[in-house]
């Protein structure tokens, strides 16, 4: 394994292409993203329509496959409006800042093996634009820069709802980026490199989704949160923010935000395939009986199929799960994903250190299992004490509320909600339906009869 990793970390294969071949590969990366985005939009509308028993787009092109292209042309031809209160320079630059970094990460994603070159117009080259010894750090940096476009769009619009959407996106990015980085670190420990081609080479015997299942689950959750997709689409929640950070945008600038979102979906799916699903390698049954499955142009096919599988996962989530509340979103990021990712990273580092010290697999499993059991016991004890404390606090609050006087919500002239410890006066029950019908039809009012009887007494 070390020999394979050292050979894969030799990046001398990159940087030897002629300039026009570099341009061709860059255009291919751009075209791959654009075509995948156009297809993903139609596919999403078709799949969600199928899940909701609707027809979906079926007018533009065969089977409605040109619907996304028609939508893009329509957006570009719409009137471009700049609101008066906006900071015009930042307002115009924000969608550009959001869109450009989305295209940059694909430059270091391998579509095929680095050592197995293909022929393009008579020139032998690898199916990867370039690679870096710190390619994964480059991807993290580029993904973080794209958030600035959303934050600046909300701030520069001069409106309250876009500002709230931008702040939500910033807080969401911070909370989910930490867990994503911890998931990446586990892959770095097993592959011994941050180079994307080296990480794929390290999965020759076994994909990292088998070795690092917790890291894969954490990354899948964080990539949905990073792309602001349902059920984590709080920065553009139309239920409480009208449209979120892009409320004041129209025409081509609005289209750039939508383009950035779908390109980010393709990018994070490609990163997930590279880190955990074997990259360009053929699936297990195919690679065993077909030796040429991982050579030539075939790796490009396996890579595209894996990316489309993850894009379907995005679509399935949107058509299945409801949007979570913002406090639930933050709680998941800070109280669940980050602690779990840090504990899992410590376990992975412990296993790798024990393997380097030539410990047996059984001993490693025993140590790791003991650590897991100890952590679970400690968490169980903490939960028991926390539950007892919560019960005592609730009982004390109930006693205090019972002893307090009824709260008058209209004491200040307008209705206000009660504070903690206060409670509203009981609402009188309505008359039975038979008595209400009796009063409406002209019969005697039983309340007035009782009042007259009391007066006579």
TrEMBL record:
Q: Which reaction does it catalyse?
A: a quinone + NADH + 5 H(+)(in) = a quinol + NAD(+) + 4 H(+)(out)
Name the source's superkingdom: Bacteria
Task: Locate the region Disordered.
Answer: 400-457
Tell me where the transmembrane regions lie: 18-43, 89-112, 132-155, 176-200, 206-225, 254-280, 300-320, 332-352, 364-385
Q: Does the keyword Transmembrane apply?
A: yes
Q: How does it sit in the membrane?
A: Multi-pass membrane protein
Compartment list: Cell membrane; Membrane
Tell me the enzyme class: translocase
Sorted keywords for this record are: Cell membrane, Membrane, NAD, Quinone, Translocase, Transmembrane, Transmembrane helix, Ubiquinone
Entry-linked PROSITE patterns: COMPLEX1_ND1_1 (PS00667), COMPLEX1_ND1_2 (PS00668)
Checking InterPro entries in the record gives: NADH_UbQ_OxRdtase_su1/FPO (IPR001694), NADH_UbQ_OxRdtase_su1_CS (IPR018086)
What EC number(s) does the entry state? 7.1.1.-
Task: Provide ranges: composition bias, Basic and acidic residues.
Answer: 447-457
Role played = NDH-1 shuttles electrons from NADH, via FMN and iron-sulfur (Fe-S) centers, to quinones in the respiratory chain. The immediate electron acceptor for the enzyme in this species is believed to be ubiquinone. Couples the redox reaction to proton translocation (for every two electrons transferred, four hydrogen ions are translocated across the cytoplasmic membrane), and thus conserves the redox energy in a proton gradient. This subunit may bind ubiquinone.
Q: Which family does it belong to?
A: Belongs to the complex I subunit 1 family.
- Tell me, how does this one assemble? NDH-1 is composed of 14 different subunits. Subunits NuoA, H, J, K, L, M, N constitute the membrane sector of the complex.
Name of this protein: NADH-quinone oxidoreductase subunit H
According to its UniProt entry, this protein's organism is Streptomyces virginiae
């Amino acid at each position: 394994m070390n020999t394979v990793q050292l050979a894969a970390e030799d990046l001398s294969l990159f940087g030897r292409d002629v300039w026009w071949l570099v341009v061709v590969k860059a255009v291919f990366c751009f075209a791959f993203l654009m075509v995948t985005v156009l297809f993903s939009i139609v596919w999403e509308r078709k799949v969600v329509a199928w899940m909701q028993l609707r027809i979906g787009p079926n007018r533009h092109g065969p089977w409605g496959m040109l619907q996304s292209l028609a939508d893009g042309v329509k957006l570009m031809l719409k009137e471009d409006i700049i609101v008066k209160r906006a900071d015009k320079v930042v307002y115009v630059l924000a969608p550009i800042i959001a869109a450009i970094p989305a295209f940059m990460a694909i430059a270091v994603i391998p579509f095929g093996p680095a050592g197995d070159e293909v022929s393009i117009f008579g020139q032998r080259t690898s199916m990867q634009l370039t690679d870096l010894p710190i390619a994964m750090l480059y991807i993290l940096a580029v993904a973080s820069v794209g958030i600035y476009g959303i934050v600046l769009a909300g701030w520069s619009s001069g409106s309250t709802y876009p500002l709230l959407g931008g702040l939500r996106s910033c807080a969401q990015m911070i909370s989910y980026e930490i867990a994503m980085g911890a998931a990446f670190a586990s892959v770095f420990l097993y592959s011994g490199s941050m180079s994307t081609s080296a990480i794929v080479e390290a999965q020759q015997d076994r994909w990292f989704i088998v070795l690092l299942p917790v890291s894969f689950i954490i990354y899948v959750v964080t990539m949905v949160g990073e792309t602001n997709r349902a059920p984590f689409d709080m920065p553009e929640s139309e239920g409480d923010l009208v449209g979120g950070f892009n409320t004041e945008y129209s025409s081509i600038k609005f289209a750039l935000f939508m383009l950035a979102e779908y390109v980010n979906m393709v990018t994070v799916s490609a990163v997930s395939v590279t880190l955990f699903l074997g990259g360009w390698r053929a699936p297990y049954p195919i690679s065993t009986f077909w030796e040429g499955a991982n050579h030539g142009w075939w790796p490009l096919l396996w890579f595209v199929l894996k990316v489309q599988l993850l894009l379907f996962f995005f679509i399935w989530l949107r058509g299945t799960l409801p949007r979570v509340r913002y406090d639930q979103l933050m709680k998941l990021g800070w109280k669940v994903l980050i602690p779990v990712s840090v504990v899992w990273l410590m376990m992975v580092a412990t296993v790798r250190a024990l393997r380097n010290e030539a410990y047996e697999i059984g001993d490693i499993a025993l140590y790791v299992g003991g650590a897991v059991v100890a952590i679970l016991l400690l968490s169980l004890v903490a939960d028991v004490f926390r539950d007892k404390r919560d019960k005592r606090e609730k009982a004390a609050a109930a006693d205090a509320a019972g002893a307090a006087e009824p709260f008058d919500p209209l004491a200040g002239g307008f209705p206000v909600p009660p504070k903690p410890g206060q409670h509203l006066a009981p609402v009188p029950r309505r008359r039975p339906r038979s008595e209400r019908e009796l009063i409406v039809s002209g019969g005697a009012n039983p309340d007035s009869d009782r009042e007259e009887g009391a007066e006579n007494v």
